[in-house]
């Protein structure tokens, strides 16, 4: 797609949507035909009344049998048309669900494959709402708005046709008198949409106020400010109520306006019908029938115009959904992958530069994070990356893990350029343990099997023993079947780290990338983590993003980054001897912690 | 509303009785507004029936004579038209009144319920709040109170439908008994059909809603954990997992659509068939001279008008269970009695004593071990004291007890002038101006405001802001750094002009220079303030007059830092662990 979908008009957006989810448009013509027949039942009564008055109910000549025959024919037609209505409603609903299901699955798949640049915290909420609320808007549209477009549209066309067939002059009078209704409805509806927007805003604001009140309860109590809070909440509650009442009152005028117009239209039609009279070819039945037809014609207008707004928001949702599907996915798979060599793997950076370009929104932030990095890490080496936040440590790790591709230059693993490596091959050989490891709200076993779906319970517990932390596992209430809670919330930060280490060990990778946690961990867990870490690092190429100088001091080699460049590179001792940035930071750290205590 | 009402609390009661109890409770809140809405609804019902008289009049006296005799009686037409139009306008007016006041009644009731909840929640002490989930409370105040009153919106409409059914039935029977019986017999059928339909479809919608909920939390989790998903190459597996839930959602929705299409067709077809029957039976009645063509026409017309309200009455009734469950969750909070405010139990300490605790114990629950166990100590006025202890030793709890936020199970707390101000570990700032966050709604003199900011070392960065203390912070304003937020919350505590200042690791977000500046300024402020700091940084501990060392909820030692280093083995070990790895050296 060369042209972004955000610039598509409504028709093109709908067209694209139907190509992406063909179920939406499959057999739409037939559905429409069924709907058309389905609304026919609503014409039966006016036509029967016209026929009866003109041919069966003339004074002195009541033909009950004629009317009974008419009634039978009419009933047959009602049955067919009701059946047809059922088919149309079911077809539309089922196909819409099938189509939206396809759209949803395509979204999941696509979003999982987007690059990490499109997965930051700010954008995650937007991605979730594409899959949930935008698809829900479309579901709502198909089950109410779409259905009423289909049925109300058919009804208005059918009724207008019958009106024109009975008497084109009366039909024109009816259309002319009721035409201003459309203007009135548009006017009221635009005000209503505005009023609804305000009340939605105030609703959201009030929820914010409530959550501030509840989360701030500790502070409010400590400062005896609860009464003040109540007064201020009362104001917001009142405002929210007022805006909803306002929207309700505007809505109260919308609904009966159709009926008021119907009354005037009917009177105008009757007046005109009296003037035309039998001399103009009009019959009494047709005129009475017209009275009923006029109601039938105006009945769906209010709903019909309301649906226009719903359609607009549905198209906007569809456009946003398609926009996500058009976002290019993260590092693409190679067409002719090269297998990684067996054994420990070296890592090479050749003239690597990187900038996070964002594609999901229009804002471009192209400040380079890494600048011409050249780095060779021999197989089996343990290296620590240090540097202030924003120096590019994390980005280096992400590039090695191919969670993103460099903007310039190339990253190689075991001598193979990463963009030539098959993704599943890479994932078997390289594991990342992030700073805040993410755990799914399930058991420890579930989280471990995320790395190895086929592992038995025994195999999993063995990994704990391998890392010499089986004592911790035994201390848990249900062992590997212990539930970790949402985002691992039932465990401490250190314990989450431990599970992430075990999860990495399950894969037996050749390259390990560790982003050290900054949060403080209690002493015992700390001991366990460092024991598990050293076990895990044995015989593996290990890259640690170090936040503590003691961790860096323990590594074989230290690389100091600053503003996306490597400024110092060597062993801890070498860098101290160099008396550069690293040495300076280390000295101040050592002296500051000790001198404070001495005073 | 009294606490004894339990009308909606028994699940075994039928929907009708639940609905009755709920409505009775709700109507007590704003009965007058609701009465106006019902009056509007009655006008609508009466006018609907009356409008069919107009149709009968027009057909019998205007239309048929014109086509039979060829005469136009303009006077009769104008009178008929005027009547029909007047009735139409009055009917529309009834609708406007009914809908407007139904909305007012609904939202004013929501306001009353949510403010009742707000007052109740705010009068509960901190310990009560600690036992509740924030999200759940917010949902009860913000969402359940809306749901509880929801039934009031469509209720006046329901009363007008009932009135309409009786008026129509009565009138039809008066005009013509056989025809009236045909029409009346079908109304209950339509009603039952509707209510049954709504119940069945609600079941499907509930299932779908449930599946939607699980889908949405699974999606949240899956996208949250995208790093893990990518790191283990589990993209396909995750999509499969989500598609299983989506399939369940789709199937539930398709079942709902299927049920709905059947009933939509029935609700469309049955009234039309009844109308045809009315026409045929009516023709016989006209034939036997029992009624006029105009009356027959008006019957059919009236029945046409009845179909719409009968169609949506089922939808209206479906809001009852939703409202009832919302109201139940509201009542659960309101029916809890207000607990004692522990602040009232704080005693006034004697002169020269800043804080005194004697035999204080505290636990979060009967089955849980005590967090504080027989804590006794005394701090002289004007001292700066640090409380030191390992993670989980009970330091923060101790501070909350001293602040009168938690009620000790045993023992007493004495505080100078019974006034202590606490600053929490995680500063909570309200969205609004900095001034508002410091004065907490009380008018403060400029000098107090200035002194508070100065003592908290917040004066410089605040005055550097364009709007100074009037700068808006939070969601709609600027965001402050962790250290700045801490200093604002410290300024807030100082502005209370309390005799005792309790700081829970407050200065940890500050650099060591700012930290010593703050402690120094506090120590030399003109008001003699006793300051108690929970600290884990050697630099903070070094600034204090005295150390209270807490181990396992008990005071294990109290004295000068240097002395404790010599005499207390555990204290020395803890200090070493603080030193080890604690500072990141600014890298």
Automatic annotation (TrEMBL), chain A:
Keywords tagged on the record: ATP-binding, Cell membrane, Membrane, Nucleotide-binding, Transmembrane, Transmembrane helix, Transport
Membrane topology per record: Multi-pass membrane protein
A Pfam cross-reference name: ABC_membrane
Localization per record: Cell membrane
MF-aspect GO terms: ABC-type transporter activity; ATP binding; ATP hydrolysis activity; ATPase-coupled lipid transmembrane transporter activity
InterPro entries associated with the record: AAA+_ATPase, ABC1_TM_dom, ABC1_TM_sf, ABC_transporter-like_ATP-bd, ABC_transporter-like_CS, P-loop_NTPase, Type_1_exporter
Gene3D superfamilies on file: ABC transporter type 1, transmembrane domain (1.20.1560.10), P-loop containing nucleotide triphosphate hydrolases (3.40.50.300)
GO CC term (a single one): plasma membrane
Ranges where the ABC transmembrane type-1 domain occurs: 29-313
PROSITE patterns named among the record's database cross-references: ABC_TM1F, ABC_TRANSPORTER_1, ABC_TRANSPORTER_2
Protein's recorded name: Unannotated protein
Organism lineage: unclassified sequences, metagenomes, ecological metagenomes
UniProtKB/TrEMBL annotation, chain B:
GO CC terms of this entry: membrane
Keywords assigned by UniProt, alphabetized: ATP-binding, Membrane, Nucleotide-binding, Transmembrane, Transmembrane helix
Domain ABC transmembrane type-1, chain residue ranges per copy: 35-322
Domain ABC transporter: residue ranges: 355-577
Pfam families on file: ABC_membrane, ABC_tran
Signal peptide start-end: none
Membrane-spanning segments: 33-59, 74-97, 155-174, 180-197, 265-286, 298-318
Gene3D superfamilies tied to this protein: ABC transporter type 1, transmembrane domain, P-loop containing nucleotide triphosphate hydrolases
InterPro entries for the chain: AAA+_ATPase (IPR003593), ABC1_TM_dom (IPR011527), ABC1_TM_sf (IPR036640), ABC_transporter-like_ATP-bd (IPR003439), ABC_transporter-like_CS (IPR017871), P-loop_NTPase (IPR027417), Type_1_exporter (IPR039421)
SUPFAM superfamilies registered for this protein in UniProt: ABC transporter transmembrane region (SSF90123), P-loop containing nucleoside triphosphate hydrolases (SSF52540)
Main location group: membrane
Subcellular location: Membrane
Topology versus the membrane: Multi-pass membrane protein
Keyword ATP-binding annotated: yes
Entry's Gene Ontology molecular function annotations: ABC-type transporter activity; ATP binding; ATP hydrolysis activity; ATPase-coupled lipid transmembrane transporter activity
ATP-binding keyword on record: yes
PANTHER family in the record: ATP-BINDING CASSETTE SUB-FAMILY B, ATP-BINDING CASSETTE SUB-FAMILY B MEMBER 6
Name recorded for this polypeptide: Unannotated protein
Origin species: freshwater metagenome
Lineage summary: unclassified sequences, metagenomes, ecological metagenomes
